[in-house]
Design goal:
This protein is α/β, with parallel strands linked by helices and about 500 residues long. About 45% of the residues lie in helices and about 15% in strands. The protein is built from 16 helices and eleven strands. The strands form two sheets. Strands 3-2-4-5-1-6-11-10-9 form a nine-stranded mixed beta sheet, with helices on both faces. Strand 10 and strand 11 form a beta hairpin. Helix 6 packs across helix 10 (about 265-275). The longest helix is centred in the middle third of the chain and has 23 residues, at about 155-180. The radius of gyration is 27 Å and the shape is globular.
Length: about 500
């Protein structure tokens, strides 16, 4: 009787077979050209020197008109190529707002406030407690001062005060870090989904920093947690048509006017998850910024599922039966997010995946169409395309679902989980806290590729791919993680008993 192979031997063998397959497919052209180049070189070596010199001499004595025509054609092709090539977009640097400890909301404080505010509705209090226990948030997340009052005081003045605090602090830090002056900013983009005052937040920034009168300013609202990458996309398009320009992008969500004070369960969820946060990003298309820039933008893909009614209404601002305004999060949210992610992956996959993964995906697709539709679809291994993943820290369920769908390891989603634990869901700015976490851990090396994935109301799934320009310093002084990075990662239990 033949001996059984040791446990895991087949799996180990399959792993090595896959590695060999990936090497052959991904380096197919190189493997094909090497023997051709060797054959040509060998033929040249075998040819007598006199014959070789005669051939070279005859080529040099070609018709002058033909030589000039070839040269002219090369110049035209090169000119068209360089003129049509899109400008490179550099991420010079960015900063994240770090709330003061006075804004901290431990679980005990949050639940005490909930009991006092919803004293006539104990079931809603119990529901919030269950959500908070399973949320993945830690004890150091922060809410704005107006929410600390009992009852909360979400006035326009308080909302403006929060906006000024988080936006101006982020911009001040960025200007100190990069040395850029207000007069050097050519384009300004501010995104905040739920707070859209008049004058706009972008006008508020122009007024505060006395920006130039010819600045191109934009204010994006109502676009959800994925608005940060929409702002980057808008900046990219503007930088293609405005040479030698700097763009300031500010991503935030103002919590003060959007704290729900009713008792509808689907509308109480955002209270448990959303917290203070903001990020300021400096982009440039100047070639001289290539050396000092942290990252270069490689790809940006946007997917919109708004044509579907369920997707459109899965994150919906509305009034409850008592007339209190809040954000209703649908039970179908995760299913819709999964569908949006699939659409986004279909577009970004061919741009970033190596040939070996694309071939496997294509063969599986053909097999399902021709032979058996019940074949399990092949999920491409995006770990071969990226070294780091920044998944929007929208909640524990979002991170769990993407980790499962993309077959990522615990380390790949560590930045997202730790950001959710330390800062909560900071909406569109969460991606930058995650990138700051990876940098603070000293993991970002030159040439590394980062995939940012964000979801937002509408329903949208947007993703950006950045390439690291240089090996970055571990935990700089202005990092939002500076005072706590040494104790992360932390263990996050499935349920925290309150």
């Amino acid at each position: 009787m033949p001996p059984y192979p040791p446990p895991g031997a087949a799996k180990k063998l399959l792993k090595y077979v896959k590695l060999v397959y990936q090497y052959i497919v991904n380096n197919f052209l190189t493997l094909l050209l090497i023997p051709i180049a060797l054959a040509v070189a060998l033929q040249i070596l075998r040819t007598p020197h006199e014959i070789l010199l005669n051939k070279i001499w005859s080529l040099l004595h070609m018709d002058l008109i033909m030589l000039l025509s070839c040269l002219f054609l090369i110049i035209i092709v090169a000119t068209v190529y360089f003129m049509s090539k899109p400008r490179s977009i550099y991420l010079v640097d960015y900063t994240c707002y770090k709330p003061p400890v006075t804004c901290r909301v431990p679980f005990s404080t949050f639940m005490e406030h909930s009991r006092l505010i919803l004293k006539d509705n104990p079931k809603s209090v119990e529901f919030q407690m269950r959500i908070l226990e399973r949320s993945g948030l830690g004890e150091e997340t922060c809410l704005p001062p107006a929410i600390h009052f009992i009852p909360p005081t979400p006035t326009m003045e308080a909302a403006r005060s929060e906006a000024e605090e988080v936006i101006f602090s982020s911009i001040d830090s960025l200007m100190t870090k990069t040395g850029i002056k207000p007069k050097d900013i050519d384009i300004l983009i501010v995104n905040c989904s739920l707070f859209s005052p008049t004058p706009s937040l972008s006008a508020m920034v122009v007024n505060k920093y006395k920006l130039r009168s010819n600045i191109k300013s934009f204010n994006l609202s109502g676009m959800g947690c994925s608005a940060g990458l929409i702002s980057i996309d808008l900046a990219r398009d503007l930088l293609q048509v405005h040479p030698d320009s700097n763009t300031l992008v500010v991503s935030t969500e103002i919590i003060t006017p959007n704290y729900y004070r009713g008792s509808e369960r689907a509308m109480l969820l955002p209270n448990c998850l959303f917290r203070m946060g903001a990020a300021a990003i400096l982009l440039s298309n100047k070639r001289r910024d290539n050396r000092r820039a942290k990252y270069k933008l490689s790809h940006l893909v946007r997917t919109h599922k708004g044509s579907d009614d369920k997707a459109y209404k899965c994150v919906y601002e509305q009034e409850d039966p008592q007339g209190k305004v809040g954000i209703n999060l649908s039970k179908d949210l995760m299913v819709i997010a999964g569908e949006a992610l699939k659409s986004n992956i279909t577009t970004i996959g061919p741009l970033v995946l190596p040939a070996s993964e694309q071939l496997l995906f294509l063969l599986t697709l053909i097999g399902r169409k021709i032979f058996n539709p019940k074949w399990k679809p092949y999920i491409p291994d995006f770990k071969q395309a990226f070294e780091h993943f920044c998944i929007h820290a929208g909640g524990r369920a979002v991170i769990d679902e993407l980790q499962k769908s993309l077959q990522l390891s615990a380390e790949h989603v560590e930045a997202s989980r730790m950001t959710l634990h330390r800062f909560g869901n900071t909406s569109s700015s969460s991606l930058w806290y995650e990138m700051a976490y990876i940098e603070a851990k000293g993991r970002m090396k030159k040439g590394d590729r980062v995939w940012q994935i964000a979801f937002g109301s509408g329903f949208k799934c947007n993703s950006a791919v950045w390439k690291c320009n240089k090996t970055l310093k571990k935990c700089p002084e202005d990092s939002p993680w500076m005072d706590c990075i040494e104790r992360y990662p932390v263990f996050i239990p499935e349920v925290v008993k309150l």
